[in-house]
Amino acid sequence: MGYPFSEGKFVLGIIFALWRMCSAKEISTNFVFGDSLVEVGNNNYIVTLSKADHPPYGIDFGKPTGRFTNGRTIIDIAGQTLGLKEFTPPYLAPTTAGPVILRGVNYASGGGGILNETGKLFIGRINLDAQIDNFANTREDIISSIGRPAAVELLRRALFSRLYNLGARKMVVVGVGPLGCIPYQRDINIVANPDSCVQLTNQLARSFNSKLQTLVTELNTNLTGAKFVYANVYGIFHDIIENYKSYGFENANSACCGFGGRYGGLGSCGSQPLEVCEDRSKYVFWDAYHPSEACNMIIARRLLYGNSSDISPMNIVQLLQSS
Description:
The protein has a single domain (16-321), classed as Rossmann fold (3-Layer(aba) Sandwich), CATH 3.40.50. It has 8 helices and 8 strands. The chain has helices at 74-81, 128-146, 148-156, 183-188, 199-222, 233-242, 293-305, 316-321; strands at 16-23, 26-33, 104-106, 170-174, 227-231, 251-255, 283-285, 311-312. Strand 2, helix 1 and strand 3 form a beta-alpha-beta unit. Helix 2 (128-146) packs across helix 3. The longest helix has 24 residues, at 199-222. The protein is globular and about 60 Å long. The relative contact order is 0.16.
């Protein structure tokens, strides 16, 4: 399930999130669907080659948690900014039960995808169909806990993506980022300019995004009461890469944690000693596929507060405030 920096070859770029508004500036519930860009530890509980439960992952989070970055994910940062008191827990964690689910659940899984065959080389992963099934289970648990009317109201006032039939009405659809710019793609493809991205890969991403944006417009027209917004992560991330120095970065091409190839994109983070860069905040990329926390902070802020070139027809804060 993709987004710009998933496992490199099979991304589609839709992140699912649900927040319930408590006030114009605060939220209390967050449901997240996606891949390794927003996973917080579901893969720790399944047999899979796609895990981030070991150092140096989580080095700035305090410990490895299953997040595929050095610190917080975009969803972690957005949730904190909007008022969540705690990080949204993984669905498969034994402690994600009872009253905890009323504050939200994260269903994301590294290697998972929109297509069920996506990520099969990782053996285990939780694809979109299974994530939706897991949410349906949570929904029934919420109904049992607080009653159907209250559960329906929680979902009706939510921010969500593509789960309209399960009661969601405010939805964010995130486009694919510039896949040709990740260290993995740079290292497996020969480019004439060492500082340039892989253009064919980026062209495919732009083509998909164009169709996705059209779909968002159609959904807003055809689904009564729904509000879809399109998040232009391609544009945001491309801007960061092109103007990285103005954002305070010193390296926009290479993995902070990685080895092999010119950009450290051929070896997995954590499999070799002493491979982490000295200052993570100066790198756009954490590993061969995923952004650093510093980069996630920029992306999250632009999705929350950005103008129509970043996210349209309104940003996430405006969506939450809308009736």
